[in-house]
Amino acid sequence: MDGKKTYVYLNGKAIGYITDPAKFVYEVRSARRSGKISGEINVAYSDKLDSININTDRGRIRKPYLIVENGRSRLTPELNERMKKKEINFSYLLRNGIVEYLDAEEEENALVAIDESSITNATTHLEFDLTAIFGLSANLAPYAEHNAIARQAMSVNYMKQSEGLYATNFNQRFDSRTYVLFYPQAPLITTVPYEALDVKRHASGQNLVVALSTYYGYNMADALVINKAAVDRGVGRSMFYKSYTDEERRYPGGQRDRFKVPPATSEGYMGEHAYSKLSEDGIIEPEMAVDEGDVLIGKVAPPRFLEENIGASGLEERMRDDSVVLKPGENGVVDSVLFTETPGATRTVKVRIRSLRVPEKGDKFASRHGQKGVLALLANPEDMPFTESGIVPDILLNPLSIPSRLTFGHLLEEIAGKASALSGSILDGTAFTESGKDRLKKYGEILTQAGFDVHGDETLYDGMTGRPFKAKIFVGVTYYYRLYHMVSNKMQVRSRGKVQILTHQPTEGKARLGALRFGEMERDALVGYGASLLLKERMLDQSDKTAVLICRQCGGMGYYDHIKRIQTCPMCGASALAEVEISYAFKVLLDEIRSMHIMPTVKLKD
User: 144-237+361-482: CATH homologous superfamily?
Assistant: First the structure.
């Protein structure tokens, strides 16, 4: 190393070099721990690149660790006692070099022990707690150590997509789109971070009785069979709120928009029926039922161009209809209307629409273990299997979905939920706090005392025939989320409609009343079947078929001269042109090639 230059980079920019990297890094870290320099600084030495990176920039993810020195943690039992008595706090540990934050780069230089028993002479840091290897969101799910890590990541995503009570003043807010679950419940199985963060104040799920059983093929793979009686009692029921906003804008020349019922003379008038639900001031009133195409806020605006403003007589002012209309596929009831003014005296109106969402076929549910499923059947309660005591499960989950996804935490939660319901106490499912064997033993004792099987299995009777099933079926209680992915929001259908100006192909997306894309893979399926006429119909006849004139002599594209009433080729002047049907997108391609001074020609067969 003697005399060798090791470059130092500050936030990715080279600021100089040193000859003893180990000493330099040690001195920077010592200064940070003693408080001489900011605790926000991270320093890392890469021996592969022989460079030192110092990071102070924003947005880095940093994690706290206990500092280990000479094979012992700097957090002594005395300090621990003082923490418990609240004589000192976390900031004290940070200022006095007992705890430090490492970023992703400096972690590469650290050897972290999971607990005090695994500290060696080479150990540099110690984890606060085993659960600290998960983030906050992952720690909200119980028994996380029993699931495949990919499922844990999915579980966090489903948590974000779940419906619940996001704010207690939701009826006063005008958020763009939100869902509020009717009967959110706190889970029977919680974790220490869940309790510490008090997440139950904004609960986003429900405790449901789940049986691991098939049901006449309706819950194949991830599909769920849900008891219709449970849905009627309020399982998964939620309210969807959506807000529409508009304002009276001002334009140069003193013109401005006005809220009012547009007169029949205005440009873009939609017909009397469209404005029938508006009050005199042009704004819809609360508790009015609305459907797609109904006008919510009536508004007139001046023409887009000044020269349009002079009417036929040269005196009347022309207006265009610029009303806010309920989007296609949506319906509901006007929940609330808000009038407000900006500091610049611009009037603004907000209209909030609410619609009830009852679970239906195709809606998504998920447990806290990344086990998502789509509702495939709402079964009548009399047709559902039932236990000896007459309990009908809320959900029938296919047992094959557990081993194939390695979500054994789901099974553990199910048996723990049953034990919790029978004992009347909330149980702790924090990861790594207890072994699975000890937990099962504890839950088994509670079940046995209540007269149930130690493993949670029960004899179920077929609701259709009344006969008991030959095998015992695992029944328990699991916390389920209802996700905001709903069929009613995504259902899209079109027979015919608007086309794009550039390609003459159907528009894209549900909001623009677009068609479903018949893509390359769908085309390949038809090619594989040899269904050429169906392929032509999809890709040409029902898309952007157009007739063009092709010159028989030079192969260029011609046109019809309406004045001379003859077909003309602009390249060679020939009048013998053939009409050919092609895709309009292909014509656009030929035009674009021509714009680059390349002359494409189309060869015609006889």
Answer: DNA-directed RNA polymerase, subunit 2, domain 6 (2.40.270.10)
- What are the start-end ranges of the H helices in 365-435? 408-423
pLDDT of residue 75: 87
How many CA within 13 A on the CB side of residue 445? 5
How do beta strands 206-212 and 395-397 pair?
parallel
In the prediction, which pLDDT does 1 show?
A: 43
Instruction: State the Cα–Cα distance between residues 433 and 190, nearest whole angstrom.
Output: 13
Where does 119-262 show beta strands of DSSP type E? 125-126, 177-181, 189-190, 206-212, 224-227, 238-247, 258-259
Q: How many CB atoms lie within 10 A of CB 546?
A: 15
Per CATH, which fold does 545-595 belong to? Answer: DCoH-like (3.90.1800)
The answer to whether 398 touches 221, Cβ cutoff 8 Å, is yes
The identity of residue 440, as a single letter, is L
pLDDT < 50 positions in the chain: 1, 312
Report CA Rg, the chain.
Answer: 34
Domain ranges of the chain: 6-133, 144-237+361-482, 241-357, 492-541, 545-595
Q: Which of 378, 460, 443 shows the shortest CA–CA distance to 213?
A: 460
Domains 492-541 and 545-595 share a fold: yes
Options 3.40.50.880, 3.90.1800.10, 3.30.70.270, 3.30.70.1230; which CATH number does 492-541 get? 3.90.1800.10
Query: Which fold would CATH assign to domain 6-133?
Result: Hypothetical Protein Ta0175; Chain: A, domain 2 (3.90.1070)
pTM recorded for the entire structure: 0.82
The rounded distance, in Å, linking the Cα atoms of 535 and 523 is 7
Contact partners, residue 273, CB within 8 Å, separation at least 6? none
Q: Which CATH class is domain 241-357?
A: mainly beta
Beta strands in 416-565 (DSSP E): 427-428, 457-458, 460-461, 473-482, 545-551, 557-561
Question: Given 47, 57, 222, 281, which residue is catalytic?
Answer: 222
| DSSP one-letter string for 247-312 | E--B-TTS-B-EESPPPTTSBT---GGGGTTB-TTSBBPTT-EE-TT-EEE-EEE--SSGGGGB-S
Segment 195-201 long-range contacts (CB within 8 Å, at least 24 positions apart): 197/136, 197/140, 199/140
Q: Identify whether 335 is a catalytic site residue.
A: no
